[in-house]
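A quick aside before the break. I want you to see a complete sequence-to-structure record at least once, exactly as it would be stored in a machine-readable document. Don't worry about memorizing anything.
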Amino acid sequence: MQHQHAIKADYFLYGIQAGIISFQDAIYWADKIIEVEDVPCVEIIDLALSKSRGRNEVMNALKGIPGKRDPQLSGSYLLGDLKQLLFAGGDLKDIAHKAMNVAAITQQPDDDYFR
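That is the input. The structure line, written in tokens, reads:
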């Protein structure tokens, strides 16, 4: 389960960096984990309590979530979110800029970056 937490933490981290996701969304995710897990890891609890410390501390807490990271997988989830925004009528220029940013920071293959 922690492997999935690390990937999801990166999803939020990169999403916040790219301006796609609010840092409050990451805190909400941590709160949900605390509700369902018998013994959530201390890093998830730290994330849940980081709201008052602001965006940068939330991002630091996300970096501390244990598990194996997979930036490309996390980035592909974000690109999927952007695709949905595009199909819902979002601003093409804004979405394209965010997609390029996500592709760069999550080390997507060059073909994906230019697509």
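Two observations worth writing down. The mean pLDDT is 92. Residues 27 and 66 are 16 Å apart (CA to CA). We'll return to this after the break.
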